[in-house]
Specification:
Strand order of the largest sheet: 1-2-4-3-5-6-7-8
CATH class: Alpha Beta
Oligomer: single chain
Distance between the termini: 32 Å
CATH topology: Rossmann fold
Helix content: 40-55%
Strand content: 15-25%
Length: 266
């Protein structure tokens, strides 16, 4: 019988933080992409626990079931969820992993709270050129215009917005699950991407001091940015999964977990 992940709430910078935890051993705090929730890590919790990892996933404030901030937070403010969740579990230090938006959150946490971070895993980092930043800002601006409509057309608009992030998708069940969890953010769905666009990940990456793994997959919509990060920081470890999409954690959970665990044990 599959054992359920333990879930609960911790005090955070904007109210309560919703989390799930599984396993014992090397602590790993994981932060999800947006708009989504910590549900994206559900497929790997059991695998990570099997590798001797205490896997702790947390909902970013305003997403999933964490409390909603009273203003659009900066990336520095979002990063405060990391020491908050560590304090809840009485962890003096921990390893951090972030996927897409989460990669920026844990990067800033590693810079602000460097003495509490052992190792860092960036699964889909986002160093951008000026042209790319302008493009992504234009794409993300759509999130500010979404509102509920009686005919339900807003659901199709948001479905297509996510679908257009990649030319091909592999797992419609995973796509649907993450789409639904993204909807939980409601009218403040744009908060995290606003912080992402205001954050210069390329500058922050240059300042990382902890041992770091760039975890990429060749089918990711921002695979090129992972390669760029590897070029910027050849001293970082690098692991690459073949294929996959933005939802690679669902698509290749065993392989993904193996790469994460191998780095933590290295």
């Amino acid at each position: 019988m599959r054992i359920a992940h333990e879930k609960g709430y911790a005090a955070g910078p904007f109210g309560q933080l919703h989390y799930m935890v599984r396993g014992h051993g090397t602590p790993l705090v994981m932060v999800h992409q947006c708009p989504d929730s910590m549900v994206q890590f559900a497929p790997v919790m059991e695998y990570l626990a099997g590798h001797g990892v205490q896997a702790i996933a947390v909902d970013i404030p305003g997403y999933g079931m964490s409390d909603v901030p009273d203003h659009p937070p900066s990336m520095a403010e979002y990063s405060q969820i990391v020491p908050a969740i560590m304090d809840h579990f009485d962890l003096a230090t921990a390893n951090l992993l972030g996927h897409h938006t989460g990669a920026l959150v844990v990067t800033e946490a590693a810079l602000q709270f460097s003495d509490r971070v052992d190792k860092l895993i960036l699964n889909g980092p986002l160093p951008l050129t000026d042209e790319e930043r302008t493009y992504f800002k234009g794409v993300m601006a759509a999130e500010k215009t979404w509102g509920i409509k009686w005919d339900g057309s807003h659901l199709l608009d948001q479905w297509n917005h996510r679908k257009n992030a990649q030319t091909e998708w592999n797992d419609i069940a995973a796509f649907h699950a993450h789409f639904v969890h993204g909807l939980l953010a409601g009218e403040t769905i744009w908060y995290a991407h606003e912080a992402v666009m205001d954050y210069k990940h390329e500058d922050a990456i240059a300042r990382i001091q902890q041992p770091c793994l760039i975890l990429a997959n060749t089918g990711d919509a921002i695979y090129a940015q992972s390669q760029r990060t590897h070029e910027m920081r050849p001293d970082f470890s690098y692991a690459e999964l073949s294929g996959g999409t933005i939802d690679v954690i669902d698509e290749q959970p065993e392989q993904w977990s193996a790469e994460v665990a191998a780095f933590l044990k290295s």
